[in-house]
Design goal:
This protein is an alpha+beta fold and 184 residues long. Among the domains are: 2-60, no CATH class; 129-180, no CATH class. Helix content is 48%, strand content 17%. It has seven helices and nine strands, in the order αββαβββαββαααβαβ. A three-stranded antiparallel β-sheet has the order 2-1-5. A two-stranded antiparallel sheet has the order 3-4. The protein has a two-stranded antiparallel ribbon with strand order 6-7. Helix 5 crosses helix 6 (143-150). The longest helix is centred in the middle third of the chain and has 22 residues, at 92-113. The two termini are 72 Å apart. The structure holds zinc ion. The site of zinc ion (ZN) has 6 residues, from loops. Zinc ion (ZN) binds at residues 78, 80, 82, 84, 90, 92.
């Protein structure tokens, strides 16, 4: 359809007859209609026919003609630019919201399944270690401290963590902890 109607215009006659013509013929017909100078007959080169301009309902692009046909068939175009059957309720807004939500869900899923870069892995491990070290410093009876003393998990407390802990005026009990000097 697209190829057939490309660069074509359609003359719709009052009789509902449609005549597909080239741009040139359409332009001549439009000029005759607008001029109203008595040239009532238009030669359609494509058909070797002559038509009476008074019998023309309109001259349309293929797109506009398609719209006219749909409207005649009872369809309507909603504000989202979608065609609906006469009794069909427009759910374009609802569908659009659902689509947006699904896209967001997929985005989150993709983000969660993404392979982490070495830097991201390092940063995640560092955060975990920091939390662990803070818990060890915070409470002598914490599970983390017990684990630490038994040799599981963190093997030494970094100096930077102790400094960070003391920054808030907290006392760090480091008696039984081994301290790792790191760059602050
Ligand atoms: Zn709609």
């Amino acid at each position: 359809m697209k190829e057939l109607t490309e660069n074509k215009m359609v003359i719709v006659m009052k009789s509902a007859l449609t005549i597909w013509v080239g741009k040139e013929t359409a332009e001549r017909a439009q000029e005759a209609l607008v001029a109203q100078n008595g040239h009532r007959f238009i030669r359609i080169a494509e058909l070797e026919e002559t038509i009476n301009s008074a019998e023309i309902e309109g001259i349309y692009t293929p797109e506009r003609y398609d719209e006219l046909q749909r409207i005649k068939g009872g369809e309507y175009k909603c504000i989202w630019g979608k065609w609906h059957k006469r009794k069909e309720i427009c759910e374009c807004m609802k569908k659009s919201i659902i689509r947006t939500k699904e896209k967001e869900k997929e985005r989150v899923r993709n983000e969660e399944n993404r392979v982490r870069t070495p830097d991201e892995k390092k940063s995640a491990l560092n955060i975990m270690r920091k939390i662990e070290e803070m818990s060890i410093l915070k409470n002598k009876n914490s599970i983390f401290r017990m684990k630490y003393l038994k040799g599981f998990g963190t093997k030494s407390i970094r100096r930077s963590s102790i400094v960070k802990w003391q920054e808030n005026g907290q006392k760090a009990d480091v008696n039984d902890l081994s301290i790792e000097e790191d760059v602050l």
